UniProtKB/TrEMBL annotation:
<feature type="transmembrane region" description="Helical">
    <location>
        <begin position="123"/>
        <end position="146"/>
    </location>
</feature>
<feature type="transmembrane region" description="Helical">
    <location>
        <begin position="75"/>
        <end position="91"/>
    </location>
</feature>
<keyword id="KW-0472">Membrane</keyword>
<feature type="transmembrane region" description="Helical">
    <location>
        <begin position="100"/>
        <end position="117"/>
    </location>
</feature>
<keyword id="KW-0812">Transmembrane</keyword>
<protein>
    <recommendedName>
        <fullName>Apolipoprotein N-acyltransferase</fullName>
    </recommendedName>
</protein>
<feature type="transmembrane region" description="Helical">
    <location>
        <begin position="52"/>
        <end position="69"/>
    </location>
</feature>
<keyword id="KW-1133">Transmembrane helix</keyword>
<feature type="transmembrane region" description="Helical">
    <location>
        <begin position="28"/>
        <end position="45"/>
    </location>
</feature>
<feature type="transmembrane region" description="Helical">
    <location>
        <begin position="5"/>
        <end position="22"/>
    </location>
</feature>
Length: 173
């Protein structure tokens, strides 16, 4: 059944495109229907609940475009992007300090924006998320430790041993 749905999804997308364009006059909204093709492939191949966390940015983008182009709701529509970390927290069923930093900064942004109406200059506070996480909650494998011996071994493997290898003679017919 999954293969049948995947096979018919391009036709369904064309149908949505034509209905949105011909009946509603929303050709740009109809173009977003073609995003259903990769979305259906992602959802229907593998475990859907596990995949939901991975495809949530794509789903939010589709929802945002549909709200914007179809209903002209660009301003409240951007809030669908808050679903990305929320779904990730729900699917993984755990929350760590790095995620809490993102939640606190986002909450502060929304609070300051609603209280003062200063949405534009306060978006800069989102730069605090990678700064705070890098300083206080670094990831274990985020850094590469290069020492002199490792550099010499890589140099020897790539440069010296590569030149000493015999090239293949591909001219023989």
């Amino acid at each position: 059944m999954k293969n049948r749905i995947l096979a018919v999804m391009p036709l369904v997308s064309v149908l949505f495109f034509l209905v949105a364009g011909l009946y509603w006059g929303q050709w740009v909204l109809g173009l977003t229907a073609f995003l259903l093709i990769p979305l259906s492939w992602i959802i229907l191949t593998g475990k859907p609940l596990k995949r939901l966390s991975e495809i949530m940015p794509f789903i939010c983008l589709v929802l945002f475009l549909w709200l914007g182009f179809g209903l002209n709701l660009w301003h409240p529509g951007w809030m669908v992007f808050f679903l990305i970390p929320l779904v990730n927290i729900i699917v993984e069923r755990r929350i760590n300090a790095r995620k809490i930093v993102g939640i606190i900064v986002t909450g502060a942004y929304i609070g300051i924006g609603l209280a003062t109406g200063q949405w534009h200059p306060t978006w800069i506070m989102f730069l605090l998320i990678p700064i705070i996480n890098t300083i206080f909650f670094p990831q274990r494998h985020a850094y590469i430790n290069l020492n002199k011996d490792m550099f010499r071994a890589k140099f020897k493997d790539i440069i010296i041993e590569h030149e000493q290898r015999k090239p293949k003679d591909d001219d023989d017919f």
